[in-house]
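> run fold Histone-lysine N-methyltransferase eggless
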Amino acid sequence: MSNRRCINNNCQSNPKAKLFVAQQSMCNYYNFEYRPDCQVCEACMRECIIYFDMIGRRFKNGECILDDRYPKKPTIVIELSGSNDDNAIDNDTEPSTENPNPQIAELSTSLSKIIQDTVEPLFKRQTELCESYLISEKAKLVAGKEQIDNLVDQVDLAIGKLYNNLYKFDSQRKFKYDPEISIYENLDDDVPIVLTKTLPGLPDDLPEEGLLIRHLVKVGDKVYGMKHSQMQPWIEGTIKSAVSDTYFNILFDDGGEKVLNYKNLAYIDATSHAQYPVGSRVIAKFQDMNIQLTDKFYVGVIGEPPKKYNNFRYLIFFDDGWTQYAYHKNIRLVCVESPNVCDDVHENIRRFLKTYLRNYPERLMVKFNKKQVVRAERNNAWCAAKVKNIDASLVQLKFLDIKVECTEWIYRGSNRLFLLYYNEISSNNQDKAVRGTKLTDVNKLLNRPYIETVNLTENGKSVNIDNRDNTQKPQENNGVIKSIEIPANCPKPLPYKHHECSHFCMLWVHYDYSQTKCMNVLTIPLHYGFTRSVLTDEKLKLRKVIYTTPCGLNIDDENKMYNYLKLTSYGHSQMTMDLFNFDCLVNPLSSFSVPKEFIRIQDISYGIEFKSISVFNSVNDLVPDHIKYIKERMTSPNVNLNMDSKFLCGCNCIDNCEDKNKCSCWQLTYEGPKNYPEIFKDHDSVGYSFKRLHKQVITGIFECNANCNCKKTCLNRVVQEPMKASLQLFFTEKKGWGVRTLADLPKGSFICTFLGVVRTEKDADNDFSLNWGEYLADLDFLDTVEEVKDGYESYVVQTEIEDESEDYTSSSDDEEFIPSWAIKSKMSMFESRMSLRKNLQNTNTKSDGKHELSKLNTQQKVESKNTSLLSYLDKDCGIFTMDAKVSGNIGRYFNHSCDPNIFVQNVFIDTHDLRLPWVSYFALSNIPAGTELAWDYNYIIGSVKNKILMCHCGSKNCKGRLL
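> ok
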């Protein structure tokens, strides 16, 4: 059977129709590659002849031959006939030209001259016509494009107006206060004491802390501008033109123009990928005394970051003298501020703000209770005022001895309050904190307003004014940051072709994790066919990370990458999600390099860890004391660990435990946080996210174990895997041995565990006087969880403390208190060791949203309502202790920092005995290569008599002392 067919790919003729030899012009007409054996049917040949006749007539008559009737080129043309076809014509034999006929040559010359004289003018004319035709068509296309652009602009404008109407700032969350509950004491019937109120939750639109970036504005941008003065509201307008690099001509929406510099302009929207730091120059919406939001923005300075303490709002010091709280969505950032922001503010508040920022985060404030009567300045006169409400750092006063009733919110650190004014006068203009003076004690005893020193670092993260980038710098003079070069012979991504991804997409790169021992963990994919690039979205002014896979696919988020790895996995060589990172601030190619002559030991683990851990010392010739390096915890003779897998709860997951609601191990992790809704507000964010832990889970994490059916690549297996971080043990001048990372560590990355010998409480106490618990860590998971309980009743009853006349209901609702750990007042040797132990303990407490004094400062006995689990343990055994003095791992060398970059997490893997968790370390933030890894020991200064430890962490918020 013949395979011949018509050269017209869209031919509608009968397949059995007679075919004719196709000429070159016919193949051109149907966009078919010419070969001597090409054939065409009669109908298609007739169509082609008609077309060329029409073209010939137009050409002869001097008309443009261009039109839109020329057939479109087929998208796919497949010709399967080969050169060995029986009907193929042999082109090898051609007429010989070795002895041309003179008559034929003369005829050819004559024909060429005739064609030149007759046809060439027609070609020239046709060229001019075609050029004119194409120019007219181009003009039509340009006009059409402009029309489409205008329509797009109109649609964008309509969408923008619709968006503004949908999200117009026409209302703000109102403050709702609980009914006043007065508790009268016998001291003074005129002085009531009021319980605190419950604060609302975290707003959804509040970003996380980070580096604040200001982008440049350009002509056509919408901005807010200072049309009149600093005391009056800023008006919305458009940048009409640029006068210079820093000055712009602004056309205001309400009419008028004005030339303003960057310091007098603010961004139009509240979009920000980080919180505004204290000291930032902003404009914010102002509230009147009826707690109703206006639409006008006034300029001011951020005085307090959003915290639970202040209902996650910013405290704004306005230039006109008012002080109010504002939510993130009602604040706009000023485009540029001076290095000293006090130079930008109005002279009326310049002195106050300068003192405030110099002393921050310590602030002198007056502590009030509701219904107290105080003296405050009003219209340059001291007036009596009654406390109506307290809102974090603000107090609402109702002035009494004036004719017209007036209510005003005042900052509790303002010298308009008589106590602070008197303190400033009596202190001889010395800036000192008034704490624990005789006057303060008397006022506190009599339940009167008194001055206290409030330090925001005591209740949360500190805010750095001088240097807002809290990233710790690499150790000086020890090494340099270099960029890793991926070898040229490593696989590179193939050009992308549309396909369904499968294990063949990665099979050819021959990935094998066992061969990655000397690679930084985030560079592993780059050695096996992946590339990573950071792209900038010019419209959104955002940067994002793009991974290109071995098969050429581009992936820009974790979910897509996980699905890709799942589709392309094969055998036991599947890549895991902790090898990838989509944060543009993390550089996988960064590597901290040190001089090799100062490497004292190549690997302190001597091959036990998957990653080698070198020992570096450029200060002296010391090397670490010899220890028995271990990968699993050991036990002393008096400790019997039940590691029988029959006592473990396992899951039956076959999907890598993706569905957390169906995984038994995930549900064990979720069960604890359900009992603490005030602490774990976002239940879905508890635990690992693609093998990273972004927030500590104080109730513990239960990983999958030997009883589970899931694979080793399961998303709930992290701490049990071999150590992947590239670490180095190095010697410091003041802190002894420390640990640093040689590569960038993304936030939430698992670093290592703390291993040692599990000992009983009694055995550890016997050695405490010799080593001060230097390498001891209590496995006090039960203590941690129970002391977070409301009121801490289960543990307080066991402490022997004396009653004190301090009244607990006298504390106002203006301080943030977070769960703490109880410390006994009469400390035994063990109790002293407990206070020194490296733990995550804080020093304040909160119960049911009602603030109480820290248990470190009170000795009032509280009756217990619950029975502690500790009472069911063997009293001779007590809690267990991990001792890494003789046997341990790299986790024993981490130093303390008042601004830590790692945190501790209790994890249960090989046993569900709550007394025996694995102690593991995770990255608290993105950590650059070369940075020392440190956590907060939370020692209590002064808790041990005749023992002083100085702190040399070098952080901006260093407390100076550890103990």
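The chain is about 20% helix and 20% strand.
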